[in-house]
UniProtKB/TrEMBL annotation:
Keywords: Signal. Residues 1-24 form the signal peptide. The keyword Signal applies. The keyword Signal applies. It comes from Pendulispora rubella. This is Peptidase M23. InterPro entries: Dup_hybrid_motif.
Length: 181
């Protein structure tokens, strides 16, 4: 009886999965500086607590563009209102100024901690400037945080599947992942 119920549940999840079309996108690094690197992946600073996202930096604050990472035109919804800083704050729940690209079946791709400038705001674009590399929200140093979530749970396959790890290039010409959207 338990086995039969479990089979039914698995079947139901399979059917639900077909209701929203999702596709693998390609994400490149967010900073057009050859020195940009990945500093955190599944764990903060590579060996700290659970993170399940990419943190990328070129060691500067407010000197470089924070660019859209998806390599085709997508709608980036902007959530702003956080003061530009190279330190940290709890603004927007710790996300700081951020963007969300929404896909099917609860999937999202997000880029956090943007220092806003004249480029910031909701828009449809392909790898365009979204603001400056900064440290708005819960962040102790200027960087770009990128994650791929489904119904709010951060997934790791989008970057582990292409071999992105600590020290990988976060240059805008380098593929860092294949997020689901
Ligand atoms: Zn992060």
């Amino acid at each position: 009886m338990i086995g039969k119920s479990l089979l039914y549940l698995v079947g139901l999840v399979g059917v639900v999965g077909w209701t929203g079309a999702v596709n693998a996108a390609t994400a490149v690094g967010p900073i057009c500086d050859q020195g940009a690197r990945v500093g955190s992946t599944t764990y903060y600073s590579c060996n700290g607590g659970s993170h399940n996202a990419l943190d990328m930096s070129n060691g500067t604050c407010s000197e470089w563009n924070h660019r859209g990472m998806i390599n085709v035109s997508k709608y980036y919804k902007y959530y702003g209102g956080c003061a530009n800083t190279c330190g940290g704050s709890s603004c927007n729940g710790g996300a700081g100024n951020y963007y969300v690209v929404s896909g099917g079946s609860g999937w999202e791709f997000r880029q956090l901690h943007v220092n806003s400038n004249g480029s910031s705001g909701s828009k449809t674009c392909d790898r365009c400037p979204l603001g400056l590399v900064g440290s708005t929200g819960q962040s102790t140093g200027a960087h770009v945080h990128a994650d791929n979530r489904q119904y709010g749970t951060r997934k790791t396959a989008w970057y582990t599947s292409v071999g992105t790890t600590c020290g990988s290039s976060a240059y805008c010409g380098n593929r860092v992942g294949t997020p689901t959207l």
